[in-house]
Task: inverse folding
């Protein structure tokens, strides 16, 4: 189950690196973004040391059609994505997987941590890269917000916008796996039906302790950890008055069983192994249809995890 040379898991910012669960979990690599030269040198060093690199970045931050703070984040996100693709192009390497992840910042940090845990297992780089989409489906990422007037990542009704101007109004928002927005005290957020660990990151002006005092017990989480708020979170959610949270699987044996339960295929383009319907390295789709990956994987979880 243990790999001698783990595939490198890279992120675009140091605040997306969560502490490891144990000594076996390798650290994440931070891809330099200051100059193209530093990015090239950093990526080349990772390839030389690890053989393969899986780099995560925010897909939704690349939406330059947004306005205001979110629009600024979109321009920044697009430049990050362009830099990563430029690095891969210059290096002419087929050993770099660039994965645009449609999760809030803390959700991306959690996904990175899960991939780091699995990187020491006996999964091939192709399976590890393509497992990111599967793992992301089981991450419940959201935030407690003091205002939704600038929120454009999750659908917000005109009624909710109007209520956000009411003094003291607070909103709980779930961005993944199914978008949901509720006003506190009027409705509950749909939670996971399996055992999770909850990560909580407080903004400089947290609206309240609702996430730890109410949400965590309601979701029956198996542990709560407080972590620093990623720098991009305030722009992603459209306000600095927030508490971001992300719940997901944390036991490496459960993560391993989830990924290993899915049928493996061979990419017809690059020849790497994969799970799901798309190669994580070259993005080539499968030429044959597959059964529903999430349903088959969920059935593989042990009773204690559901």
Result:
């Amino acid at each position: 189950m243990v790999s001698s040379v783990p595939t490198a898991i890279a992120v675009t910012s140091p605040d997306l690196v969560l502490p490891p669960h144990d000594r076996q979990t390798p650290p994440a690599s931070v891809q330099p973004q200051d100059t193209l030269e530093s990015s090239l040198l950093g990526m080349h060093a990772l390839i030389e040391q690890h053989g393969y690199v899986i780099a995560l970045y925010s897909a939704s931050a690349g939406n330059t059609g947004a306005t205001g703070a979110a629009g600024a984040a979109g321009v920044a996100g697009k430049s990050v994505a362009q830099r990563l693709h430029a690095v891969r192009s210059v290096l002419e390497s087929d050993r770099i997987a660039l994965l645009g992840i449609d999760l809030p910042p803390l959700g991306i940090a959690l996904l990175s941590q899960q991939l780091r845990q699995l990187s020491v297992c006996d999964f091939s780089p192709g399976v590890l890269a393509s497992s990111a989409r599967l793992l992301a489906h089981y991450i419940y990422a959201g935030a407690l917000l003091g205002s939704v007037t600038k929120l454009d990542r999750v659908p917000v009704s005109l009624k909710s916008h109007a209520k956000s101007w009411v003094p003291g109004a607070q909103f709980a928002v779930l961005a993944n796996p199914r978008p949901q927005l509720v006003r506190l005290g009027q409705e509950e957020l749909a939670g996971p039906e399996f055992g999770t660990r909850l990560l909580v990151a407080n903004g400089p002006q947290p609206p309240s302790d609702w996430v730890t005092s109410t949400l965590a017990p309601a979701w029956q989480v198996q542990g709560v950890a407080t972590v620093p708020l990623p720098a991009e979170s305030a722009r992603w959610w459209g306000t600095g008055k927030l508490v971001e949270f992300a719940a997901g699987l944390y036991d490496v044996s459960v993560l391993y069983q989830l990924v290993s339960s899915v049928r493996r295929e061979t990419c017809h383009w690059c020849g790497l192994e994969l799970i799901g319907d798309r190669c994580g390295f070259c993005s080539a789709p499968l030429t044959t249809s597959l059964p529903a990956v999430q349903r088959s994987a969920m059935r593989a979880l042990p009773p204690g995890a559901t």
In short: Residues 61-75 have pLDDT under 50 and may be disordered. The radius of gyration is 19 Å. DSSP finds nine helices and twelve strands in the chain. Residues 140-248 form a domain with the Hypothetical Protein Tm841; Chain: A;domain 3 fold (CATH 3.30.1180).
